[in-house]
Amino acid sequence: MSSQGQKVAVITGASQGIGAGLVDAYRKLGYAVVATSRSIAESQDPDVLTVPGDIAERATAERVIAEGVARFGRIDTLVNNAGIFIPKPFTEFTEEDYDAVLGVNVNGFFRITQLAVERMLEQGGGHVVQITSTLADQANSHVTSVLASLTKGGLQSATKALAIEYATRGIRSNAVALGTIRTPMHSPEHHAALAALHPVGRMGEISDIVDAVLYLENAPFVTGEILHVDGGQIAGH
Prior knowledge:
Elements: E1 8-12, H1 17-28, E2 32-37, E3 48-52, H2 58-72, E4 77-80, H3 95-123, E5 126-133, H4 146-165, E6 171-178, H5 191-195, H6 206-217, E7 226-229
Parallel strand pairs: 1-2, 1-4, 2-3, 4-5, 5-6, 6-7
């Protein structure tokens, strides 16, 4: 069990990149963390519980929340960070592409968020954060993104609906909409082209996203917000 009053954050897609940055950041805030991804390794930190599994499968979501509650006793924050982006022309998406992207981006959000919100209702409050994409609001002629827009746009609408449904019950729901962030997902030879997609002329850093999530974590009057951390892309290009 967590020490008296210690808050608990659940982070999906937690093994690398933004997810790993979020694990570190929530630990620095004093939270215990339940970290999940397909390939996550055990942590030496007694306040980090790692749960391997594919978030597209309901059983993974159920295991993450059940094991988190068994170990730490509560769930205060859920960051739905796991995501897949496949930049193909629309007519080239295969059934496998569709199932993979919907599985992680939508199914992966749905069940774990239901389970987390149930716990938050019992506790009298909590916070859910989705990691989405500015492409859901602002399509770009240089990036083919229909599946990203379909799924991340759905998450942004759901973020607002959750915020309103639970506004009087102490549960906040927000999203951080990304530009392109320098993570292991992007190979260095593409960095210059990716930087050029942003009005500020550079890619974002993991710390930019972590800072945005922490702002939302500590902003009790902010709910239903889609916070764009995208180097100006939302304003135009």
